[in-house]
Amino acid sequence: MLSKKQAKVFFLGGTLLFSLIFLGLSYESITASIPKKTNADQISDAVIRGKHIWDSNNCMGCHTLLGEGAYYAPELTKVYERKGETYIKTVLMSEKPWAPRGRQMVAYGLSEEDANDVVEFFKWVNEMDLNGFPPKPSEALQP
Amino acid sequence: MKYKSQQVAYWFFALSMLLIILQITYGFIMAFAHYGMDGLHAWVPFNAARATHNNLLVVWLLSGFMGAAYYIIPEEAQRELVSVKLAYIQLITLAIVGVVAIIGFHFNWWEGRKFLEIPRPLDYLVVVNVLTFLGIILATLYKGKQQTTTAMVLTMGLVFAALLYLPGMIWFDNQAMDAFFRWWVVHLWVEGVWELIMGGILAFLLIKLTGVDREVIEKWLYVIVGLTFLSGILGTGHHYYYIGTPEYWLLIGGIFSAMEPLAFLGMALFAIHMYRKGGKSHPNKIALSWTLGTAIVAFAGAGLLGLAHTLPQVNMYTHGTLVTAMHGHLAFWGAYGMLIFAIISYTMPLMTGRKLFELPSNIYAFWLSLIGMLGMTTAFAAAGVAQVYLERKVGLDFMVAQKEIEIHFLILILCASLFTTGILIFVYNFIKYGRPNEEAMQPEEEFEAVQPAA
Asked: Which residue of A has its CA nearest to B47?
């Protein structure tokens, strides 16, 4: 029967082993794979400013990006491709709450400059390699 | 209660009770908004309600963990806390930071990173606060007469929780890197080190409530926390499927996160087995119900419902939908909410000397909150699955799909009302217990005190 000491070795040994594997894989991810898959060389100053605007207004409190955030408003990973620059800018610069089908967004009334930065951010996100996310709708279910 | 300084725990629990009520209030605001009634939008937009709801959860759970530690550590180390005054200062500053953060959310002051919304200046205060807390705990343990496994596992969980807060404070220009490290905090907290805290508190409760030999309970505690880390550390990979991360995480995350329910199953079987093994019967039955409840519901909510959407093939469709909210609600309530209710139920009679555990309303608090939460989980599941099919499989526009699932939020609100009724009864009883007092102090082992020799 397992003794308390053996159980302790299982806990400490296992934790150490799996932590090391995790750290090793994480190192590969952050130094090699992520920069490549996200086109890190294309992160311009405008993209960074756009990310600041995204974060400082807690856009993730309603929307999702890369599938992360809240589930109250649309997923925006591919919004640049889906809606285009003009539509995005109109929403961001609107002085009145944007409310498609009645669900209201906060009226941010961004300046044209800020709106351009957010568009640049979306444009960069749009090009990421996300292992197939978001999924394409099933063809069998199309009318 | 054997040591006077254990009374500090009461005030941490009181803060938890206050914050859970606020958390639920914001939950209702969001549920009504999803149902189409967003009349408060101008004052409390959804993102403010959401940040408030999530952060209040984190703060009330942390406050509960801290209260639990302040109660458990003196008893395990067999000495008073090194400083009661510092503990009170720590409590007050925790409350102030929490309140300032929440008010800030209503004025668009935040960092906007899911679960880590609180603004940067407050992050530093959190760090100072937690260091103070750990200082008190570690010093007490170090100066104590003994260092038990239960106390060590609990403390290890608290120390790692503090350390893991730090990667969340690094700024990255790359959204994917930002997300990568955000999960070091969020995932490695709730599916890693918080489970150590849970294991420690659970072991303490089982030792006290069942009377089973400490050596046996602590042996299995090691096995369970071992399983937690064996699956949970690489299980972080299930957050790295679709965020600009390499493909090997699909395999690693899939395999290891599919093993995560094992740790929770272990915890549930452990609690049930120890309960059956313990020959004696503790009079505080309701504390036992919450203790067994937390172990079992954690397995259902965190283990099984997590498994339901953790495989990459499934997660491809459910990632970023209400299915996540389904899993999140039962997981947090089962693993951490009920755990704090268990330690509160156990300690209140000992701190106040009043045996209100015999009140029938305790049973209503337990079952109404549990059934209410199961109902809420079902409503989220129905909404989430429908959303996945309409939006991801059929390809309908987001808001078109949302209109179709609106009705599930009415059910959510009804079930949440049941849940809230249970919570309010619990809080009412908490208030009825009154303050801790010195008359409740007793020198002997509690089991001897409640189990008169036959």
From this structure: A61
